[in-house]
Each structure stands twice: as structure tokens, then as C-alpha cells.
Amino acid sequence: MATSTRTLGATSPLTVSALGLGCMGMSEFYGTGDEQSGIDTIRRAIDLGVTFLDTADMYGPFINEELVGRAIAGRRDEVQLATKFGNVRDQDGARLGIDGSPDYVRKACDASLRRLGVDHIDLYYQHRVDRSVPIEETVGAMAGLVEDGKVGHLGLSEASAATIRRAHAVHPITALQTEYSLFTRDLEDEVRPTLLELGIGLVSYSPLGRGILTGAITSESSLELSDSRRTAYFPRFQGEALEANLALVENVAELAAQKGCTAGQLALAWVLAQGADIVPIPGTKRVRYLEENAGALDVRLSGQELAALEAAVPRGSVVGERYGDMNSIDR
């Protein structure tokens, strides 16, 4: 397997592994979590050179940061650690809204540092934009964390082009994290050109379309009963939409068979091929899927192969919104 790095951001650059690891599913949302399996997966990732780890305070809630902290104990210097604030939840998991107020920014960072068991966070994101607080105030508080040495670099998640510009004018934004895959390409219109213009990296979450592009999901019944993808929160996994989207996955699987790789590896290779400033962070809680994902770094795609992939999944052909409720997405 090829081990390689990429650099996020031009003004405030952060070098990370070319493929990251999303840790969310180890604690919540995609079926039953298994802490030991998650820890084993993170440690195997570090061994493989997949050292860019992504978590957030709201995952669990709170317990995912603790899990990541336990997994990297004694190996802090080997990883690039990213976490997020802003999606507020209580201990019971209830969602309490979005908070980007300066006071909350500081409190959330201190709490994340405690749970992670570290003295600094490499990349600290605002998880969702708080429309009730000017982005300048939120980023100003985040910049204070950089001055205090608690945070190395700043990021935004699911921010619009206009918000990104305003934020970057306050303090260099190193990366935007947003959903990007063969199944989700809407950022190509305005957000992607803005990132390229300003020299901001792109961290692609759900680069496998929440797992559907691996081919492992064959019907709603192939998901655990506790899996949130079975709910209306994820329309692409419901009824006729799922059937239509699985037909697109079959197209990808056919091309992958011709290439001699898995469908998931081909989908990740497509994201990696969209620019050297893009780092996908596929999530998994199992070592075998991590190892499969890491194999995507060895898949090289020609212009003809990229065109065939995009013809197999034409932009706009995916049925259903990304989320059942898109109100929290800054557009």
C-alpha cells in the first residue's frame, strides 16, 4: 500500500495523511458501536500511515472523543487530530441546536481537550454554521484558541462560499469539511472554486456515500435495526430511492471489477483524483474495511476511467437529498 501525505491549506498549511479515518461510527449512528473494535481500528490505521483522525464532541455524544483519546495514548505525535464543536447535545443525546458564540467556542474546546487527553487539537472545526452569530465572532474566538496554543489550525464544516470568504478574512481557514463523493457533487458549483481561489483544503466526509458505494448495502434489511440510515433522516436509503441508487452502485461495481479493485476503492480513488488538496475521511469501525479503504491509495485512474465513472454515476442521478432535514446546512 502506498503511504502518502497531502497538505491542507496554503496560508495555514497542515500536512496530513492522504487518506483519513472518520471515527464517528465507532460510537453512534451506523449501528451498534464496539469500543475495542474502534480502538483496534484506529491503532491499525496509524500503523498503516492513515494518521488523520476525525471526531467531534457530538458523536456519542462525547464518548467518541474519549475513545479516540484512549486509542492514541502514547502515540499523539504520530497523528493529526481533528475534532469539531457547534452541534450541541446533552448527555442523553438530545439535540439542543447550534452554538457558535465565542464563550461556547472556548468551553467546547476545553472540554474536547479533556476528553481527548491532549494539550492541543491540530484542526478544530465549527461543525455547523450558527446563523444567529456572525461568523466573524465565531472565527475570532477560534483564532484566540490558536493564540493560546490549544488549536493548531481552523476549519469549517458545511459552510457556504460566502461564509467561507467572511471566515477566511478573519483568520486563515485551513480546511472545509463537507460531504463529497460520486453521489454528492453539489459543492462543485460555488464552494469548490472558492476553496481553490483562497487556498483552502477540502476534507471529504462520507466519500463512500455513507457506505452505499462499497456495495455492502444491498437493501434496507442489510442494515442493523439501530442504524440511522434506516430512518427518514437519510432519504437516499429509503424505498424506491434506495433501489435507484443501488442500480448506480452496480455500475460502479462493474467498472471496479474491470479495474481489479473493489467498488469502494474505486469510489475513493475518484475523490482522491479530484485534486491534491482533497483528503477523504471514510469512516469505519472494522479493521478489514479500513485496510480495504487504504488500498484505494494504490488505485490510479486515467482520464478515460474517470470519465467512465462519471458516466456510470451522472451528476444529479442520485435519488434523494443528503439529509431529510437540510436546515442546518449553510447554503
Automatic annotation (TrEMBL):
<protein>
    <submittedName>
        <fullName>Aldo/keto reductase</fullName>
    </submittedName>
</protein>
<dbReference type="InterPro" id="IPR023210">
    <property type="entry name" value="NADP_OxRdtase_dom"/>
</dbReference>
<keyword id="KW-0560">Oxidoreductase</keyword>
<dbReference type="InterPro" id="IPR050791">
    <property type="entry name" value="Aldo-Keto_reductase"/>
</dbReference>
<dbReference type="GO" id="GO:0016491">
    <property type="term" value="F:oxidoreductase activity"/>
</dbReference>
<feature type="domain" description="NADP-dependent oxidoreductase">
    <location>
        <begin position="19"/>
        <end position="312"/>
    </location>
</feature>
<dbReference type="InterPro" id="IPR036812">
    <property type="entry name" value="NAD(P)_OxRdtase_dom_sf"/>
</dbReference>
<dbReference type="Pfam" id="PF00248">
    <property type="entry name" value="Aldo_ket_red"/>
</dbReference>
<dbReference type="GO" id="GO:0005737">
    <property type="term" value="C:cytoplasm"/>
</dbReference>
